[in-house]
Amino acid sequence: MNDDTLLTIGALARRTGLTVKTIRFYSDTGIVPSTDRSPAGYRLYDIGALARLDLVRTLRELGLDLAAIRQVMAREVTVAQLAAAHADALEVQIRTLRLRRAVLRAVAKRGSTTEETTLMHRLAKLSDEQRRRLIADFIDDTFGGVDANPEFVELLRSAMPELPDDPEPEQVEAWVELAELVQDPDFRAAVRRMARHQADDRAQGDTTGLHHELTQQVCDTVGRAAEAGIAPDSATAVPIVDELAARYARAFGRADDAALRDWMLDRVEAGADPRAERYWRLLAVVNGWPVQPSMAPVFAWFVAALRAVTRR
User: Fold this and answer.
1) What are the CA-CA distances from residue 168 to residues 101, 171, 303 (Å)?
2) Confidence check: pLDDT of 209 > 60
3) Where do the domains of the chain lie, and which CATH numbers do they carry?
4) What is the mean pLDDT of residues 147-165?
């Protein structure tokens, strides 16, 4: 090849805008080797080196490392193959950065301590599978070995936390609180107690284990009483409790007596644990579901009324 058709490293630097040092480095590492040498020993490059250096600069600006670029230049992989692999890697990095951003915003919003920040980061960076496993372990521990309502257990198993790739700080906070809640031994014991109540219902012939109609009647009746401003420990509340006790007696085939009221109180207290409702509300926030109106005031009124009646 005639020297007149070749470019010196200085000319190549002027044509590409790269420094002589950078081009020499690419040449030494074999990414863009020189085409020839001048009689004085200086590197010379053909016109194709311009295109190769332009490609190298583009790939570097896209974040590819030198080892990957060397594969492209050696034609061990195509640019398309390398781009696809790098795009997948970037997707993981982007998701990680978005999650870190959400954690930092949640920390700033809450004014978290060092310990809380560490916990929040540890729980937030769990994979989807690890999050599902944490909830599944909770369900196995609380309902395992108990003949509870299978439809309810299946509902729990199907409603798993799915933290989005770009979560809001509120979603990160909700997930962290949910993860702490399902690991709380006291909450697990309360849910286990509820599972046993469902098992007792099934043993008595209730195949649903939920008594949907009865629950709705309680919500409607107690809701109206609470809206009317009736105090749960007042005399006006007594006939309301009597009415509901009669419905429980019919639904469960029991005598309407003092023992029934004690039994009702135990059941309603188990089902009215505010942490159970909190579980579903946190799950809704994490998954971006509509948050249902709270039933806590209804069951709090009913528990207080039952307690007042049993003390009379």
Assistant:
1) 9, 5, 36
2) no
3) 3-77 (1.10.1660.10), 124-311 (no CATH)
4) 91
